[in-house]
Amino acid sequence: MLVTGGAGFIGSNFVHYTLKQHPGYEICVLDSLTYAGHRESLAPAANNIEFVEGDICDVELVDRLMSRTDVVVHFAAESHVDRSLHDPEPFIRTNITGTYILLEAARKYEVRFHHVSTDEVFGDLPLNSDEKFTEETPYNPSSPYSASKASSDTLVRAWVRSFDVQATLSNCANNYGPFQHVEKFIPRQITNVLVGDRPKLYGEGENIREWTHVDDHNAAVHLIVSNGRIGDTYLIGSGDERSNKDILETTLELMYQERDAYDRVPDRPGHDLRYANDSTKIRTELGWVPTYADLRAGMAQTIDWYRHNEWWWKPQKEGTEATYRVLGR
Ligand code: NAD
Ligand code: TDX
């Protein structure tokens, strides 16, 4: 199994999850170790996997690795919306060109391909509605990040239809859990509290996200890799929707801080209002059931992880906050 982006947040958790739950796979990780990739995230697995430091846009390297691969799970991406608003170029390169290069190699060597994508490709939903995204919702991305992911999804579908590539796709809601970069919402606020800074809420904090534990996401990916229908797309999401303000106040409460001990900062331009996935298909067809039913408990566990793993996140913290200062957030 070739895991692209396996040194990132979801990819590294996927490697640990696979070694534990599906020990039959021989894993090779391909990751270029951008600012978001951390070899240390794979330290507990170092003796049980092969790690290749390299770029998914490197045609020769991808060709060589794909020639000895049965299945590729493609996580590698530029993943942060705020960074895409500041500098879209790496998003176009990695998310679109990189996916194209992997698809061409998968086509050549007839490799099973799973493409990991996001609910952000659909745009957003109104705040006060019960509407949800489904596998049939038309794409309407808002940011350079989501536009690049939407492009990569359509490339995968075209390669299935035109070249018979054996691919599946999944679009998951927001993930949380260990090894998530401190630029992202939940870890940024946890680590702000841990270093004695005030958390930062964009705008009024009314925007809603559907929070899914990374292990539940990865369990879903395994179900699709094993039993998914070729060419099909599966939406993944816990069903637990929360406003950013709610998540932040819960974080503060779980860390024994005053619930209002945070700063409001200028809103993200084009900020998507609400994401919510209808995950009926993966639940009924593949039997996926999220095990982290209690978000508060999952968040408490995640806070604990950051508390005990300062060695992992501390080196990212100062640079990340310096970047946010440039963005004014
Ligand atoms: P991440 O930013 O934490 O990790 C991305 C990894 O890809 C890093 O290790 C990075 O070094 C690597 N990478 C980047 N460019 C590369 C390149 N050109 N060649 C090789 N490796 C490269 O991202 P994440 O949050 O783990 O997201 C993983 C995937 O899941 C992405 O495709 C993302 O769109 C998708 N996704 C994320 C979420 C979420 O909440 N984080 C939700 C749904 C879908
Ligand atoms: O400091 C912050 N304050 C704040 O209010 C940060 C970093 C974020 N926010 C808000 C913006 C969003 O409404 O919190 C929400 C979550 O922000 P992010 O963690 O940046 O996630 P989001 O933009 O929702 O995108 C995430 O989920 C979908 C991932 O980063 C994507 O890779 C994934 O596709």
UniProtKB/TrEMBL annotation:
Catalytic function, reaction form: dTDP-alpha-D-glucose = dTDP-4-dehydro-6-deoxy-alpha-D-glucose + H2O
Cofactor(s) named in the record: NAD(+)
PANTHER family linked: DTDP-D-GLUCOSE 4,6-DEHYDRATASE-RELATED
InterPro entries with a match to the protein in the record: dTDP_Gluc_deHydtase (IPR005888), NAD(P)-bd_dom (IPR016040), NAD(P)-bd_dom_sf (IPR036291)
Enzyme Commission identifier(s): 4.2.1.46
EC category name: lyase
GO biological process: nucleotide-sugar metabolic process
Keyword vocabulary terms for this entry: Lyase, NAD
Family (UniProt): Belongs to the NAD(P)-dependent epimerase/dehydratase family. dTDP-glucose dehydratase subfamily.
Species annotation: Actinophytocola xinjiangensis
Pfam families to which the protein is assigned, alphabetical: GDP_Man_Dehyd
Superkingdom field: Bacteria
Residues of the NAD(P)-binding domain: 2-292
Name recorded for this polypeptide: dTDP-glucose 4,6-dehydratase
Record-linked CDD domains: dTDP_GD_SDR_e (cd05246)
Molecular function GO terms recorded: dTDP-glucose 4,6-dehydratase activity
